[in-house]
Amino acid sequence: MMKNYFFTILFFFLLGHVNAQKVTINGNIKEEGSGESLIGANIYDKISQKGAVANQFGFYSYTTEKDSVDLYFSFVGYQTKRFQLAPKSDTVINVFLIPDGVLEEVVVSAESMDKVQEITRMSSINVPIKQIKELPALMGEVDVFKVLQLLPGVQSGTEGASGLYVRGGGPDQNLILLDGVPVYNASHLFGFFSVFNADAINNVELIKGGFPSRYGGRLSSVIDITMKEGNMQEVKGEGSIGLIASKITVEGPIKKDKTSFILSARRTYLDILARPIIKAATNGNESVGYYFYDLNGKVNHKVNDKNRIYFSVYSGDDKAYARYNDFYVNNNERTDYQEEFGLKWGNFISALRWNNVINSRLFSNYTFTYSRYQFDLFNEYKEKITGPSGSQSNLYSERYFSGIRDWAAKADFEYIPNPDHYIRFGTNVILHKFSPGVYASKNSQEANDLRLGASELNSTEYSFYAEDDINISSRFKANLGLHYSGFLTDGQNYNSLQPRIAARYLLNESTSIKASFVTMAQFIHLLTNAGLGLPTDLWVPATPNIGPQKAMQAAIGAVKNFKGFELSAEAYYKTMDGLIEYRDGATYLNIDEDWQDKVAVGEGKSYGIELLAQRKIGRISGWLGYTWSNTERKFDEVNFGEWFPYKYDRRHDISLALTHEWKDNKDFSLVWVYGTGNAISLPTQRYEGPEMSRWGGNYRPEIQYYESRNNFRNPAYHRLDLSFSWWKTKRWGERKWTLGIYNVYNRMNPFFMDLSYDRNGNRKIIQYSLFPVIPSFSYGFKF
């Protein structure tokens, strides 16, 4: 069967090469003024009723046999441009679209060209950056992931957290890409914010299923985030000052129309605000703080019309710490000491890309990347002893650290022989270096340092892919592809051949039905201690003893474009194998044990129905989404080997996100969410154990009996957020004020549940909540 599938792919590839003499129109589609690439912009030929789409770098190619063309170039929120010409040979047309999101005549033109029902891929959602910035935000801090959590099929995990649980998967099963580079930990503030600064982002796409063959290495989703390229015409900037953080972004030309840059920075100042209060309360002896920061940078250089080079960098860290310093005198000696303990984690990502237009129909992109994620738990004690005979300094330190480093190279090619074929193929290789938990201590008075824990692991991951988006008929279109990947680790070589199929059939001009079937493989695991996305989670590779994760997902749905609304309904079924989690009682702190001896291996399944009504343009925009789903897990060594609900299994999820630009300089937005409670484990019986002695007395310990894993449900979660913004144009640019309220009606949602006793000694369930009603403000500016 697999062999026949391969030859079917090969047949369509060869078919794409057999062409009569044709004329190709190609070029780039960008934003007027800034020169920013418009990813996914549409090209439509009214004469042939065929078209094309711009790729991730704004490049498009359209081939025709007609004597003349009537081309419409469109993108959501931009004015449509029209070109009528009769090309005699291959022609280059670079198109610049003017932003204009509310004019009704533009809305009509754009809607006629942007037909979601004609796209082959399903389970994919693109959220405009403008909507992301306008929706209410926790503590006024705009967060890409918080918005993605509002989409059908995406769970948020716990209250306020930025983790994504997509169609029953875990956070480690999301392929999060920043300019094509995987991000291993995308959380700030212990999971409450993501690392992505919306001011530096050009495009965000979420893929939940029907994965194209060019993506691999994860099971549940792809979050493809592209940074801005930088303004080619003039220096521009924007920023904001908020309740807990401030940020600024500057972009502009290094050489006009040739080289551009963008720099963006964000930092919290919780530690700065709390520092004087803590010092005053401790006479200056103690200091406690927390902060995070992000730095984004990118340079975009146009070598010539056919070659372009990009270099992008991201760096971000979190640090929570406590410092204490004091002195004491003993036997004519004074000892000054300082102790600091805390934790620190962060990412560093860099990417060098070369775009090359090989010819009018063939586009290539070469990428070289280095990335690093590391977590440190540290305790350091310094002392200086001063006496009659002189002074000496001593240092004692303990450190637990883990992380992962990647060096990668990939080559991607796009070949567009005619409007009926869009062929992509390429290869990728990643060199992984894992540090899955190491304890180290140092004593300046001793010659040798102590080092315990797992040794570093080196692994190589490689892949090849090919896919073709084929117009089989005027109504039937399919994307056929293969993704082959391998993983070499500790003498073991794992291989995986993954067929990918997606198809759509047009019922009429506004309605289509879609279906997809994909298989996925994931060669790295995340050992998770808690649901908050804490940095103590460990990344580990597949080994000869612990195999890779695998998944299969099938989906079917319908899409309709109706008066500016995109309406969709999808049903999916997904199975997962090779899942791991800690055995009962095991944690990352058991440094004397190999992590492979701490885990259980199991399987999972998830199925559900997702409904979405979305409007991307106009004075009122947003979406209403609903999800019904069921997610279960099974481990031989857990829950007596029986299936049990996944912790983040929810039957019902509803999300409403609306933005209303009710005046030219004012907008109002709201978010309302509802979700049935997460699954939790609570004991159903308790009894006294055998008598034991402790501290000179006897007692009987209480033994709790759990009938099954995740046998209870938290109360339902629901919340309303509001935001109001108004702005004004100044001589120097624009200023904007935003007032927001998180959890307007002060719903005390469960953060976690626990068993306790009331005053009469009776057992009861206690709910702990995190966020009450929280007002926020921010001041934004553009220049």
UniProtKB/TrEMBL annotation:
Statement: the UniProt record of this protein carries the keyword Signal: yes
Membrane topology according to the record: Multi-pass membrane protein
Domain TonB-dependent receptor-like beta-barrel stretches: 282-744
Residue ranges that the Swiss-Prot or TrEMBL entry lists as coiled coil: none
Entry keyword annotation includes Lyase: no
Key words, A-Z: Cell outer membrane, Membrane, Receptor, Signal, TonB box, Transmembrane, Transmembrane beta strand, Transport
Signal peptide (residue range): 1-20
PANTHER family, per database record: HEMOGLOBIN AND HEMOGLOBIN-HAPTOGLOBIN-BINDING PROTEIN 1-RELATED, TONB-DEPENDENT OUTER MEMBRANE RECEPTOR
Protein name: TonB-dependent receptor
